[in-house]
Design a protein that fits this description.
Blueprint lengths: L14 H9 L5 H5 L5 E4 L14 E16 L4 E9 L4 E7 L4 H4 L5 E11 L2 E11 L18 E4 L8 H15 L9 H6 L5 H9 L4 H32 L9 H9 L7 H15 L5 E6 L5 H14 L3 E5 L3 H14 L7 E4 L5 E5 L6 E4 H10 L4 E4 L17 E6 L7 H14 L5 E6 L5 H7 L4 E5 L10 E4 L5 H13 L3 E5 L6 H8 L5 H24 L5 E4 L5 H12 L5 E4 L12 E6 L7 H8 L10 E4 L6 H12 L3 H12 L14 H6 L3 H17 L7 H15 L2
Parallel strand pairs: 4-6, 8-15, 8-16, 9-13, 9-14, 10-13, 14-15, 17-22, 18-20, 18-21, 19-20, 21-22
Antiparallel strand pairs: 1-7, 2-3, 2-5, 3-4, 5-6, 10-11, 11-12
Bound molecules: adenosine-5'-diphosphate and magnesium ion.
Length: 725
């Protein structure tokens, strides 16, 4: 038996449990040993029975004097009642509905019991304690032989209904057999410099710690290990990418100037600087992998279009991928109008419709079949193909040399999985000797610590200023009593010619949602239907009762694409006044004439998401407002809304969000499959930088880890784990 032995070969684990473990991704002994507790219960103090106290948790050790089952007729329960005695006193013990206990625990047995002391009709008793038999031989030193009591006991996340008791029962013998045989993957120097526990010690101490302090040290070691592996993976990916070839796109400054002249505004310095960095990257014959990070409304699209234009005019194709259909269509419209004097063929490929649109120079938009569009793309006739994740389907192929796909633009890239991003580029690697340049864009300000780990293989361009002349958005939490006043205010804004967004969260009432959902019964469906229901109700209320004279429309994810598009276009063309919507408009939507963003149930959204919503307004010279309604007075909600009011900087907000909520909610991190306990360490910027430094130094000396074979093996497994779907 070794670490790679599959769990099926462990005799104690029957088929039912094998299945459960597999659901958690646990396949080998190593996996199970790396399934860590999420907290501990301290039962290390075994006290005399005479010292127990009402309502306290305690641990005692004594002999069973009596034990028997009885049935309570009233509540149809089986009680196991026992009396346990030590040198100082005796106490009653009661378990509920565990009749099999009388088969395990017999009179005269020594037991260790840990649980809560409560008062019954006949005095104090121990209620449902955790129990463990203690062999006569180890009565003097019980702790070293105990697993569930009499020590600091691990508590595991009880998913898939795997009890902590069962996991301890499985893990402990494995540790006894293999705990000392786990090869150390961290180089000795790194262990010493960072004062880490060795693997042999850490693996024991994380499961069965001798003290809380040692448990923490063990956690630190595994956090370090996991982050170290991430950093190695990221750095190696980057080294590999640097070896690949890409098409060099020559910079044509005159073309850029000509394009910029067609805009109705001047580029900001940050836009100019980012464009320059990108164009410089494109000139190189190795693939760009750059993240363009800029707050909502900072004008990332234009920068991407400059890169696209240069690529196209060099004779190559561009793929422009957006996370939602609405956004893809918006981009299609924007690209069509911005490129209209540049003789460029533009295609739009989304998922749901059968018809697709292509636009030639100064021609009307024409709808063509998907088949035709794909044919045109493969011939190289489409210069820029815009779409959703449909673009990564194998059917979509780009033109042959000397042309072909040379640049991929990924908008709101945090919305795509790590795998999707990898696939986009990898597909091209198989097909050709060159791979496309990749420009990712995001407005989700990723805290530096996370960016360093997750996107460490990307170069970063920052748009850290908003276009000039934008007014600060006034953000306010509105007390319920002021709802009427707010309605008056909205009427006034509309009268002035402005428009209004109203966002509704999902109502968490599965029962009512189910009724609406009808036949739909998957979990996801129910929740999105709940969202739809909320929007419909709000729409009814606003259009009939509150603003009968205004043009109120609604938008949600369950509408047909055509319908959605029409609603968005009408709104954009100012045919309607108020758009009531689900969170579908969270990303990217650009309607500058909108000045009021009303968010209902603001407590249900994360800070980053609220900031995204707010970014939908404040895109013109008019004063804009973000008005928040919240039904919750919870401390965290208040903290979050306060942060939103006091800060308009997305990056600052992201740091605050990280502090308030922890990193679990940041997209990206989840997809790495990082265990929760390790996720916590992502908060620790210092630790991240240390692991990054260590990884860098090691790879400089030993790029392929030839002299660190255990580490190399482990890294390969790790990479497989994060890359496979
Ligand atoms: P985001 O970075 O959120 O994707 P967009 O690219 O959608 O932002 O740009 C937001 C709005 O600002 C658009 O209406 C765009 O035309 C406009 N815009 C972009 N750059 C500038 C600029 N330098 N000056 C004024 N307006 C700009
Ligand atoms: Mg955008």
């Amino acid at each position: 038996m070794n670490l790679s032995t599959s769990i099926e070969q462990i005799p104690r684990i029957g088929p039912v449990f094998q299945k459960k473990l597999k659901k958690l991704g646990i396949k080998t002994i190593r996996d199970i040993l790396y399934h860590f507790p999420h907290r501990y219960e301290d039962f290390s103090d075994i006290i005399p029975i005479s010292k127990i106290k009402l309502n306290e948790n305690c641990c005692i050790l004594g002999k069973i004097l009596e034990i028997k089952n009885s049935r309570t007729w009233k509540r149809r329960m089986i009680l196991t009642q026992a009396v346990v005695q030590d040198k100082t006193d005796a106490i009653k013990v009661v378990w509920f509905n565990q009749p099999y206990l009388t088969k395990t625990l017999k009179i005269e047995d020594n037991v260790c019991l840990a649980g809560k002391v409560v008062r019954g009709d006949n005095g104090l008793y121990l209620s449902n304690p955790t129990y463990e038999k203690v062999p006569e031989s180890s009565i003097q030193h019980p702790a070293s032989n105990l697993t569930h009591t009499g020590r600091i006991v691990p508590v595991y996340p009880e998913t898939e209904r795997l009890s902590s008791r069962w996991l301890r029962y499985i893990i402990k013998p494995l540790l006894i057999n293999l705990g000392n045989k786990i090869p150390e993957i961290l180089p000795q120097k790194i262990i010493q410099e960072n004062k880490l526990l060795s693997i042999g010690k850490a693996i024991w101490q994380i499961h069965f710690p001798d003290s809380i302090n040692l448990a923490e040290k063990a956690q630190k070691r595994f956090s370090f290990e996991e982050l170290f592996l991430i950093e190695l993976a990221v750095l190696q990916a980057r080294m590999a990418l640097n070896k690949e070839k890409a098409i060099s796109i020559l910079m044509d400054i005159e073309l850029v100037k000509k394009f910029v002249k067609t805009l109705s505004f001047k580029l900001t310095d940050a836009q100019r600087k980012s464009s320059w960095q990108i164009l410089k990257d494109l000139e190189k014959s190795r693939p760009m992998n750059r993240l363009l990070e800029g707050d909502v409304g900072s004008g990332k699209t234009i920068v991407a279009l400059i890169a696209a234009l240069e690529t196209i005019k060099n004779g190559y194709q561009v793929a422009f991928m957006a996370p939602t259909e609405i956004l893809a269509k918006q981009h299609f419209k924007e690209v069509s109008s911005r490129f209209k004097d540049f003789n460029i063929n533009i295609g739009l490929l989304t998922g749901k419709e059968d018809k697709f649109i292509s636009k030639k120079l100064k021609e009307e938009t024409i709808e063509i079949s998907r088949q035709k569009l794909l044919e045109k793309t493969i011939k190289g006739d489409i210069d820029i193909l815009i779409g959703t994740h449909t673009l990564i389907q194998d059917k979509v192929k780009f033109g042959p040399p000397p042309g072909g796909l040379a640049l991929v633009i990924l908008d709101e890239q945090h919305r795509f999985g790590v795998q999707q991003r990898a696939k986009l580029v990898a597909r091209e690697i198989d097909a050709k000797t060159t791979i496309p340049h990749l420009l990712s864009m995001t407005a989700t300000p990723i805290p530096r610590s996370l960016a360093l780990t997750i996107y460490g293989d990307l170069d970063l361009s920052l748009i850290d200023e908003l276009p000039k002349g934008r007014k600060k958005i006034i953000t306010k939490v509105i007390a319920p009593a002021n709802r009427k006043k707010t309605h008056q205010f909205i009427k006034k804004e509309v009268k002035k010619g402005r428009q209004v967004f109203v966002i509704c969260p999902r109502i968490e009432s599965p029962a009512s949602a189910k009724a609406t959902a009808g036949k739909q019964n998957s979990k996801e469906d129910i929740s999105s239907w709940a969202e739809v229901k909320a929007v419909k109700e709000e729409y009814e209320r606003l259009s009939k009762e509150v603003f009968p004279k205004l043009k109120v429309v609604m938008l949600h994810g369950k509408m047909r694409p055509k319908e959605k598009e029409k609603i968005m276009m009408d709104f954009k063309n100012r045919k309607t006044d108020i758009l009531v919507s689900t969170s579908v408009i969270e990303v990217g939507i650009d309607v500058p004439n909108t000045t009021v963003m009303v968010i209902e149930g603001a407590e249900r959204f994360g800070l980053a998401q609220l900031h995204q919503f707010r970014g939908r307004v404040g895109r013109s010279k008019y004063q804009s407002y973000c008005l928040l309604f919240s039904e919750s007075g919870a401390v965290k909600t208040r903290q979050r809304l306060k942060a939103l009011i006091s800060s308009e900087n997305g990056f600052e907000l992201a740091e605050k969000d990280l502090k308030i909520r922890g990193p679990g909610d940041f997209s990206g991190a989840r997809q790495w499959g990082i265990p929760d306990m390790i996720m916590d360490s992502l908060k620790d910027v210092f630790l991240i930088e240390k692991t990054r430094q260590a990884a860098k130094e090691l790879l400089e000396q030993d790029p392929e880890l030839k002299n660190h074979s255990f580490l190399e093996e482990r890294l390969k497994e790790f990479q497989a784990r994060i890359h496979l779907e």
